[in-house]
Amino acid sequence: MPVRAIKTTTISILALGLLAGSAVGVAAQDDEAAAEPSTPAKVAGMIDTSGTAPVQEPTVTEVDGGLEVRGAITEGDQFEMDDPRLTGTVTKVDNVDVHDVVNDEGVVVAGSLALRLDNGAGSWSGQGTSVGYAGRGIPEEEMLGLDTWVLTGAGAYEGLSAILIVDPAGDQPTVEGVIFAGAMPAIPELPAAE
Q: What is the tens place of the pLDDT at every residue in 7-62?
């Protein structure tokens, strides 16, 4: 698979599932919520990738029949969200592993990224993960793929976090998620094995 055909954006449907099932729930998005910088909100939108430009070409290494793609930097993705706090221009750095599926039936793509979204009032930065499966002969819009991004706000968005679920299929990936006050809790440690 050519490196240019590797599409990464980044995953976690679990986050929204847990939030939707929570007794706390998620506040409905409306004009008043978007105007108040600290208001929790459900958000949705898309990413316009038509202006995306490479800033740094990645290094590509063949490993055990797959590819390791490291340090691809792009800028120019445009977040077009129903909440202006998450509308802006994105710069991201991707690391991707491409694993061939048995019998050359397709590839599994796993990725990690760092990203920053900027707009006139502030910025969001964070990390994400992605996974996708592309079978041979499957149209791009039918490929399996989901990304999860966890972002921290700065400037006017100081003290806010956002969790975004991105469906990278097609030319304009779709985004759903939440903005909330505070930070993500620390990742717990597993109990010691007995």
A: 333 222 222 233 334 333 333 334 444 446 667 899 999 999 999 999 999 999 99
- Backbone φ and ψ for 15, nearest 5 degrees, come out as -60, -45
Let me know if residue 193 belongs to a domain. Answer: no
How many domains in the chain? 1
Helix (H, G, I), strand (E, B) or coil at 162: strand
CA distance 129 to 115: 11
The model's pTM is 0.76
Looking up tokens 């039918």 gives 142
Residue 189: inside a domain: no
What single letter denotes the amino acid at residue 152? T
CATH code: domain of residue 75 = 2.40.350.10
Are residues 75 and 91 in contact, defined by beta-carbon separation less than 8 angstroms?
yes
- 27, part of any domain: yes
